Amino acid sequence: MSLLAARAVPSRDGASRTRRGNHNPRRRNRRIGLLFVALPLAFYAGVVLVPLAQSFQYSFYSWDGVSRATWVGLDNYVTFFTDPVLQSTLGHVLVLICFFSLLPIALGLLSTALITRRRLAGMAIFRFVYFLPQVLTSVVVALVFKRIYSPDGALNTLLRSVGLDALTRSWLGDFTWALPALGLIGTWVTFGFCMVLFISGVSSIPTELYEAARVDGAGPVREFFAVTLPGLRAQIAVALTLTITGALRTFDLVWVTTGGGPGTATLTPAVALYRAAFVNPQVGKAAAIGIVMAVLCLVIALTIQRFAERD
Fold first, then answer.
1. Whole-prediction pTM
2. Do 82 and 52 fall into the same domain?
3. C-alpha pair distances (Å), 114 with each of 5, 56, 195, 199, 306
4. Residue 282 lies in a domain
5. What letter does residue 65 receive in the DSSP assignment?
6. Which of 100, 143, 270, 307 has CB atoms 3.0–4.6 Å from 247's, for a disulfide?
């Protein structure tokens, strides 16, 4: 009888351990954290992950969105890399990367080096003016520059006023100049963002490093390459990631200004995806383009992050 009672009644140590386990602050905080994360994660999965998985599935089919889908395997991906028109979109993206990413970052670094070298009056207004394109919507920017680049627009009017009539042209209708003209719009839009990002990064660099460089006799150029540029490595990585992926995903700017024309001179993968999905419905082909560009953006972002974290 006493043995059964001893088995039925738990010991005080066991009960206390159970109570401590149930009221462990770490476990409770972990459960609360999971509850907070569960709803946003479910929303993210429904909005992003599930459509991404469906797009990956559609990319293996030939489907117009209405009739019965036909399995084609990797044909849509092969078409993307073998079709001359789609191949040209990758070349156009490389040109846009130069204008959307490399040129604004170079100009942003140069402006940062000049501005932070000496405090100037009205710096806040200067930053606001150059950051303003980030506030404007891309459609508004596209409409404004479409008017500027028109045959009777501000650019051609300026050229005529200084006697350079031979240089006037329909900039967005010219097979040679349409893509660079679009690229300059991207440079104007992203330059302010890069400059403000770099200026904020310079403010976090210890002033002792600049003082030590000046004591060692470093001039402005050497000071920039020895102190400022290494100190901005994280900001440069962020700027590269955002601007390169932005160039890869360029759609609204191209669609509003040229629609991919003249011909296919300004066609980008995003515009080709839109045409394949809605203009001449080829859902599988559009899905394949989207998957390739998503993977490319991911690889670029991971590569830049990998180099940014290296000593």
1. 0.84
2. no
3. 85, 48, 11, 10, 29
4. yes
5. S
6. 100
